[in-house]
Amino acid sequence: MNEEAGWGYDLFDINMERQELGDCDQTYDSITHHKIVICKKEDKMQKSDLHTLLIYQRSYFEILEEFFIGATGCSFDKFCNQSEFTEAINKLGESLKNNSKRSSVCMASFETLAKKLGKLYSQESMECFQSVKNVKCCKINLGGSSRFLETQLNAVKKTILISDIVLIPDPVMPWLESKREHEKFKFVNIIEAVFFTLHLKNLHSQDFDMPPFLVFPSWEKSLEENDTQTKNETNQLIADFFSYYANREIISIEDVFDYVDSDENNFLTRVEEQRLFISPGGEVGEPLRDALRNYRDDALQWRTPGFNEILAHAPQGRIVLNGIMERVQPQFHLFENANELNSNPLLCIPAQAHYFSLLSRMNNSRVSDFAGSDQSINVAISALANSRLDYLANINDEQLVELRKSDENVKFRNELRGFITGLPTIKIEDLDYTAAEVCSHIESLISTHQKEVEILNGKYKAKHMKSALIAGGGLAVTMVPALAPFLGAALPLALAAMGKYSSDKFDESHERKVLSSSMLGIFALVKDASKNR
Fold it and tell me: Which of 46, 368, 400, 528 is buried most, with the most CB atoms less than 10 Å from its CB?
């Protein structure tokens, strides 16, 4: 399915370096049994905050899992492979047509989901959101979106390698808190969001001092529809966007519509020159004619007949304006979450990164509040989002858990931060350049690791050969007893050699385990595996 259908955006952030835990106590939550680190410093994370997050997330995933089984008749890990969701959901739809009883159970599961998530939001969401704000660590925030698909899931898994916690705005509740009247496949989109979100479930290890990710309540659609301040500030962001890139005389959202209607040709020219319109699934800089065609085609597939009827009678200027507003509006929530949760947003889809870059250059109060980001960490996360490192998403959950338990994410983050700060200052602002440099650095680290493995192989091959030659004398004694009186001294030497061989094998096994279970060892393994696919 199109990962950008509707208002689908996957943006994510990072900010503060994890605090050193030199003056801390460790205890265990009596309900969840998760390890809790309680720091005595001023910026410590309170035990109650972590407890709140863990309890909230446990309840959230229990609700999603119950729903998915009710809606599909099986658990998420047995439904299909991640890349086969479209085929599997079509097959499910066909089966429901011929099974009224199963269809009734499926539809009832949506009502239960709405009721239980609504209750969770009403009772615990504010406390959860406040606890997220209280967490002082390296945060990454997957920005406001109604979509959480394979690309977003892979982005989260890669980002866990460098962050302390990835914050994910709830991708399910937005489908329930708003009518989404122009979306053709609302129920399918809900199942899809739940399916991919549940693939994070196995990363709930009880041994973490904090969870590697948190799906937090965001209320984005409710705020868009009902909150006056959100409406006003979003409209102002859109107005400032067109004022900066199209017409300096624009002050308000009303001015935007007046400009588009009164001077459509100039508006469309400015849009194409400034690369302001990217269709769903399109590329930065695509011709406006192609972008318009792609936008209409996408709407025919994913939007309702009523929405397409509106498009059919709308002038080109209004269609382009609507497409750009659909791109800009979710970015408001991105900046808002970054400011509220003290986290830096970054993006893993080029088109969305392009809009973030456009907005970041503007003079807007919401954007200006976000000025104090950690550029070196921004670059590191941008590099992880690069397609050159896609193989890192193939690290399995068990390996991720072990890496997190040994704080390899912190070591890796510090390694990249040190490299990035050593780059020429003038280049740091060029994310494309610096991300490419970081990718090359990571690949260089992997190559260095592989050379260490080769050195290890040579080292122990020589040792084992020497032990085998010594043991060979003793073997001759046992095979030819008549020679024993003449070679008797070789027997204890051979036994000692065999003991040395066993000792060397143990040391070799240990060193191999250390190398293969390290961050770079796992990187090398998944990189090699990706070549053979």
Answer: 400
Of residues 205, 203, 230, 201, the one with CA closest to residue 218: 230
Cα dihedral sign, 512-517-520-522: positive
Structural contact between residues 424 and 375, judged by C-beta atoms closer than 8 angstroms? no
Quote the Cα angle for 384-390-392, to 5°: 75
Q: Which of 204, 195, 209 is nearest to 153 (CA)?
A: 195
Query: What is the reported pLDDT for 106?
Result: 93
3-state helix, strand, coil in the chain (%, to 5): 70, 5, 25
Label each residue of 109-143 as H, E or C.
HHHHHHHHHHHHHHHHHHHHHHHHHHCCCCEEECC
Residue 171 contacts residue 145 (beta carbons within 8 Å): yes
DSSP annotation string for 211-250: -SEEEE---HHHHHHH-HHHHHHHHHHHHHHHHHHT-TT-
Q: What is the dihedral of CA 335, 338, 339, 340, to 10 degrees?
A: 120
> Is the pLDDT assigned to residue 457 strictly greater than 70?
no
Model pLDDT, residue 398 = 85
Cα 57 to Cα 49: distance, rounded to the nearest angstrom: 12
In three-state secondary structure terms, 169 is: strand
Q: Which two tokens stand for residue 384?
A: 């992880």
The pLDDT, as a whole number, for residue 508 is 46
Q: Alpha-carbon distance 427 to 270, whole Å?
A: 29
**Which run of H or E residues covers position 358?**
helix 350-360
Q: 332-390: per-residue pLDDT in tens?
A: 888 888 888 888 776 778 888 889 889 888 877 667 766 556 777 778 888 888 888 88
For the ranges 14-23, 213-222, 306-315, 435-444, the lowest mean pLDDT is seen at: 14-23
Q: What is the DSSP string of 379-441?
A: HHHHHHHSGGGGGGGG--HHHHHHHHHTTHHHHHHHHHHHHHHTS-HHHHT-HHHHHHHHHHH
How confident is the model at residue 480, as a pLDDT? 47
305 with 340: CB under 8 angstroms?
no
What's at 519, amino acid-wise? M
- Tell me the whole-structure pTM to 2 decimals: 0.78
What are residue 38's DSSP bridge partners? 25
- Calculate the alpha carbon distances from 433 to 246, 264, 380, 415 in Å: 28, 36, 12, 18
Q: Give the number of other CB atoms < 10 A from CB of residue 77.
A: 13
In this prediction, residue 455 carries a pLDDT of 55
Contact 395, 528 (CB under 8 A): no
Distance of CA 247 to the CA centre of its chain: 36
Alpha carbon 6 to its chain centroid, in Å, reads: 20
Residue reference for tokens 């939001």? 121
